[in-house]
Amino acid sequence: NLKEILEGTKSIKVQLEFLSKKSKADANIVKNLQDNTSALNSTIRNGIVLANAIMNNGTSNDSFIRNNVDWLGQSANWSKYIATAASGMIHQGNMTPSMSVLGAYLPNMGSNQTGGAYAEGGALFALGLVHKGHGDSVVEYLKNTLKNSIEVMDGGESKKTEVLLHGGALGVGLAAMATNDMEIYENLTTILRGDAAVSGEAAGIAAGLIMLGSGNESVASDLLNFAHDTQHEKIIRGASLGVALVMFGREEGSEGIIEQMVNDQDAIVRYGSMFVTALAYCGTANNKAIRRVLHLAVSDVSDDVRRAAVMSLGFILSSMPSQCPKVVALLSESFNPHVRYGSAMALGIACAGTGSEEALRLLHPLSKDPIEYVRQGAYIAMSMILIQQNSKRNPYAKEARELFEKSALEKREDLSVKFGALLASGIIDAGGRNVTISLRSKTGHARMTSAVGMALFCQYWYWYPFAPFLSLCFHPTALIGLNTKLQLPTISVRSCVRPSLFAYPPPIELKKEKAPVKGPSAVLSTAARAKARKGEKPAESKEVQEDVMKEEEQVEGGKKEEEQAFEVLENPARVVPEQERFISWEAEERYRPVNPVSRSGICVLIDSKPSEDEAIVSDGTGQIGVTGAGMNVSEEEKEPEPPAPFRYP
Q: Is the pTM of this model over 0.70?
């Protein structure tokens, strides 16, 4: 148990169990999007697949994939890569059965691999997403797969293995994140020397993931040299982002490399320098860093650099979300649409999960911008800010959901806007509506995986297969009580506020096709006069009669019951950040937290009656009944135990 606690795997297991059992993802949202959009367009299909994966992130609920095998079978090339990688988002944290879940697609594992290189590459990426920084059990497999692919590449078959190298590099980079493994790093530099655009970009990013936060100037210099020695824009961008990852959290220690990159003649290297600044000063609100990015946001000749400079403000000000709207207010009105897009994303990054009304007021006009990609960024930013918000607490939430649905289903809408609306539909309900996005921990420290995931997700602008990195940003909002044996006992806490204030949004209802309604029958004037003489009332239509009956029922029903002023939550419980101050432990409760101020997260409990038997909710092992090929088995579907022995009388 001590080893599991120190490695962080125990936290992952109990959080996985919480996300799986408490998931409130609304399958009708994805079904509505799927049924009312074109399945022939790869961008729309990618958006729906990613929306479902984000909505079920970490829940291991892959029913959409299993129920739509034929629909997903229409995917080709990189769409197939994204669809396979999405499985890693859904099963994130479910590390024990990861090889069996993805075994049908992994190289040299599946007996019936029909997906080819794109499915295999996506599966390697998915394996990294599942293990993200805890990949001891799969690193050797990923290293060997990468070595075999490099040997094939050296043999002159680079075109066939480029996709495999792309997925393998990202997968091993995520699984061995921040381990400083020089053997993996050397293999990645071999890929960079091969000068293949697609695999080279992934290798540059993966090298940064391996050396994440190390501040190794030799590695940073090597990556910068690779950026200068190639003609491929993808490799230049990947190597520059790799430098940003190496310099994560280094602050003043990164100034030398930042100055060198800011003054580079290549606009892509300058673009990378903005992310070096963003990650090196993430959450510090450093005045020098803010002045630098603001200067480049209005002076650089490259739109890409200006866009990245404004986005960097979101990272730097992530610890002070209330200040970000004030800083970007004027930039959001810029004549340059790239700056307006960057302003939207900066607001989403800094104010994620806060429901900031000030930020939403700035995003409202951007959601109606005449430029398509500005509206796309505004939708994504709005969903990040409104994650876990309902209409009772934030009136913008309902309006935003309707806007996302309308834009996604509008036939004449631009594809880039539709893609943004689809992603936003998933983000606002991410992780079964039980996770949030925050680049800072409760103690005020930068969350490394969240910041890295957000920086790499922003690269979807150039390459949609980078969108799954968003899954690194999500964190469960739960109160999970553990006893001394690290099991989940039966306990309850009180939320001293109206339940509707922090309730889940209601599920949507699919619109049914209405049968043609028979119109009211014509009544001749002579017949009406004849009935009037006899004292009879003219016949009312069926619709009018139904309306009258409804009004009578409402009158008879009287007033609605008043809502309770509190709610009792059972272990494990969903507790959103704004709800924490209303949480109190029951006075007569058997268990009390070791830390009296604990209101969320994983709480170790003290048992006041250790001699009595305990009622256990779960043993905390994270077993959720997953079988091979991504199939989930519910408790009802498991084989029942045999009956106890008995003697027939």
A: yes
